[in-house]
Amino acid sequence: MSLPASVPVIETEDLILRGYCERDFDAFADFAASDRSRFVGGPQKRYESWRSFMAGIGHWTLRGYGMWMLEHRSTGQAAGRVGVIYNDGWHEPELGWHIYDGYEGKGYAYQACRAARRHAAEHLGMNSIMSYINPSNTRSLRLAERLGCWHERDVELLGQPCQLWRHPTEEGC
Description:
Elements: E1 10-11, E2 15-18, H1 25-33, H2 46-63, E3 67-72, E4 78-85, E5 94-99, H3 108-124, E6 130-133, H4 138-146, E7 150-157, E8 160-166
Antiparallel strand pairs: 1-2, 2-3, 3-4, 4-5, 6-8, 7-8
Helix pairs in contact: 1-2
């Protein structure tokens, strides 16, 4: 099965950021069913995950950008998702990340976020993008700090308290 032509492919040292393939769904659904998904709308039942998976594909069609599936270069397995989303009710487009079980703590989120952030600045005019982070999501807070982000303000997202973190401007963009 070929990849959707509308999703650009970006490569990092360890990852290929690409469009969704049906073979990615099991890893997507496993993450969505886990407690680790609690910061991004989960846990979800498998049929709810299918809707979310399809919404991720649809975001690319509607907005011209979205979250890439992260393919681990050496194994070919889905390692997570990273990209820019702008859902109804959001303050502005957000750079978001979800790293699947077994791929955390290896620098993959950092690599993928840097690549996605540069793409957003160069191709979408989204320099100094933001990320929503739940204040109790310590792993995401650490990643945001490593990415050079700062806590800009507290906001409410979907009726829940949240922090808006601002990314630095990409140089040369």
